[in-house]
């Protein structure tokens, strides 16, 4: 697959990376803040804003689990309460999507159950995102695929069998445009655990499928490197300011960081180019600064060329340096002034 199309935006190796700003719960339960996040993402140059569509009830039940991992950002949080705090109210979606559209951005979401897909279909979203933790929910994948919309699926916390089965469910149920995102589902993630060398292999394994990165690391190094390995899509969590707090703020990008991500990933994409040897058109003038053979001391007719009266110097207007041994000891046919680029007609 060379490219897919989401709401008129072409995505693929021949286009600049598609940058998704993931709002998640960084609105901190304020619609005004959510709209500010959309505006900041647009100003930074992101292509899309992405929401998560769920309620605490569609995710879990009260008392099911309390996070006790001492390294977790959410240690001590009961899941139901965490999702109540983090979810984006469904009644906000239309306003957020409208604001994004006004700013020329694409807006879509990750549904977490069948009712969320039905709701998002009522808003006519142009694409769907499948979160890593949902990519083994085959009934949900089937429901999403049957919409016929492009799908972007994260592959964190997944075996190759999990991914293969998920791709099979999506494609057998009508998904024709698919992007698989390499993802390490830790928050934040360490570059040492990202293993983005997987990207070319992932693209090779799943033909007619684009690849990208859902990134939870801090900084720009990992997504920029991912683009150099073929990532067509980069997804990063986004907030107005990490200092404002929020469920995902600790590993989210701020506006200036997102702006730099947009710029630098596009540069990385442009730098990839194609396999190329030889002098490029843009280098033609630079050829002058290669070395060549020059006369550095006046030579009279009949005088031999030596290492004392010739040298290999810049610029490149004379014979190529590889001819130096050939011209040494030859006789000048005419007077040659110092500073003259040497050519065969002189000897």
Describe this structure in words.
With 347 residues, the chain is an alpha/beta fold. The protein has 2 domains: 15-272, Aldolase class I (TIM Barrel, Alpha-Beta Barrel), CATH 3.20.20.70; 281-346, Antifreeze-like/N-acetylneuraminic acid synthase C-terminal domain (Type Iii Antifreeze Protein Isoform Hplc 12). It is 30% helix and 16% strand. It has 11 helices and 12 strands. The chain has helices at 31-44, 56-59, 79-86, 93-102, 114-122, 138-145, 160-172, 198-205, 221-228, 255-272, 324-327, and strands spanning 4-6, 9-11, 18-22, 48-53, 106-111, 128-130, 151-154, 178-183, 210-215, 233-237, 292-295, 310-313. An 8-stranded parallel sheet has the order 5-4-3-10-9-8-7-6. Strand 9 (210-215), helix 9 and strand 10 (233-237) form a beta-alpha-beta unit. Helix 1 (31-44) packs parallel to helix 10 and helix 9 runs parallel beside helix 10 (255-272). The longest helix has 18 residues, at 255-272. It is elongated, with a radius of gyration of 29 Å. The termini are far apart. The model has no long low-confidence stretch (mean pLDDT 96).
